[in-house]
Amino acid sequence: MTDIKNVELRNLNIDDYEELKAAMLKAYSNWQESYWREHEIRTLLNIFPMGQLAVLVDGVIVGCALSICVKYELFGDEHSYKEITGNYTFTTHNPRGDVLYGIDMFIHPEFRGLRLGRRLYDARKELCEQLNLKAVVFGGRIPEYHIHASKMTPREYIQKVKDKELFDPTLTFQLSNDFHVKKVLTDYLPGDKESKEYAVLMQWDNIYYTKKTKELKQQKSVIRLGLVQWQMRHYATSEDMYEQIEYFVDAVSAYKSDFILFPEFFNAPLMAKYNHLSEPDAIRKMAEYTEDIRDRFIQLAISYNVNIITGSMPLIRDDKLFNVGYLCRRNGTFDSYEKIHVTPDEIKAWGLSGSNKLQVYETDCGKIGILICYDVEFPELPRILADQGMKILFVPFLTDTQNGYSRVRYCARARAIENECFVAIAGSVGNLPKVHNMNIQYAQSAVFTPCDFPFPTNGVKTEATPNTEMILVSDVDLDLLSELHTYGSVRNLKDRRTDVFDLKLKNG
């Protein structure tokens, strides 16, 4: 073992047959005549050469993995080895099948312990992804079961192996390679005395599988976000503000961004002309612009081909003042979102009311969530959205001091980790000396990620320069989230003890 110089993984070819036979006879030494004949290997290589894999040590074959593609619904979970292989003729192979079915995998006993089997399983998984198949499925042997057969059923044996109370060289290895048990198969492989002719139907799901469709477009996985770090400044007219809005939309769309995010109350400069009024009256006068701003954003979303998250604006409804924003999709549709939690200062200065609206939003880039500023500091809200499939959380915010900003920032970073999603935050900078209660602003817009190997170690994808007007453009890969949900070092969503606690909206 110590003299091994080279390990190679490649596709099998017919010239390998004698070495393959020798390795197989050693691997199944307790099972006489248990080797594939040359004509059977030749058939597999003719119908599905990609599916036949060999691992070599110093140029000699010491193991292999043999596979076919099947249309799994024709067989279902109740099948025998003979049925799935077409009585060992492999006529069941279907180039248009949806499952990669493993018909054999072995390693020469002298070369076990080198994780060569893991290489073969990983290669099978890669092939499954490459061919866009739903899963890898096979019937796994349980060669140690005969030792315990008099004391327990196959189901009890499998559970004890899963619980690490017993060790089975085959099943334990398969479980450690991310395969899960579907069911117990009886009379699966005649002659397998060690397994008492039982087998464990094992499956590995391809998280990247996409159902074949006739639609022209598939939802893409890499999404480009554009964040506007908005400078508060005086505008002589509302048209001056619209000009600034369009400038940013134009700039971000030039980078072919899928989303553009504006900050909370970015339109506060419009209150300057009402500064002689009380603060509650001034913000209510600003609310008169909200529907017009929304309509302008809808047109910009269409003409610049970008989904716009409009930050937030005041809106009067039933004589109450709410903090609302709009998701303006590039196809011309729109939805509203509203701030649920209002700060003590917002109540005191403006008389803002909290809403009870919470939902995920469907977009051409998948499901997103939007929470305004203070709302991201309440972990229940993003968790509910994550349960509904949210992949990206957008947080428009407005903070005057670094204290307030830090609350938003660190809570947003926590939400990215605990909900296994991306979080984008955008705020305003500068000052408005002629607007009461809006004297100063502090912001550093950013995109946050979970903390695991595919992501930045500190969970910060990118961030703007503090207190400087600018745009921030960043790509996020949704496939990395799918990977994290299944294979992450920790899996905050999957590992929740919902048998101990739960969370739900009271209004449904």
TrEMBL record:
An MF annotation (GO) of this entry: acyltransferase activity, transferring groups other than amino-acyl groups
Question: Which residues belong to any copy of the N-acetyltransferase domain?
Answer: 7-207
Hydrolase is among the record's keywords? yes
Q: What InterPro entries does the entry give?
A: Acyl_CoA_acyltransferase (IPR016181), C-N_Hydrolase (IPR003010), C-N_Hydrolase_sf (IPR036526), GNAT_dom (IPR000182), UPF0012_CS (IPR001110)
Give the PROSITE patterns listed for this entry. Answer: CN_HYDROLASE (PS50263), GNAT (PS51186), UPF0012 (PS01227)
The CN hydrolase domain, residue ranges? 223-478
* Keyword annotations from UniProtKB, A to Z: Hydrolase
What Pfam families does the entry give?
Acetyltransf_1, CN_hydrolase
Domain of life, per the record? Bacteria
Transmembrane residue ranges:
none
Q: Which family is it part of?
A: Belongs to the carbon-nitrogen hydrolase superfamily. NIT1/NIT2 family.
Q: What is the protein named?
A: Predicted amidohydrolase
Species source reads Alkalitalea saponilacus
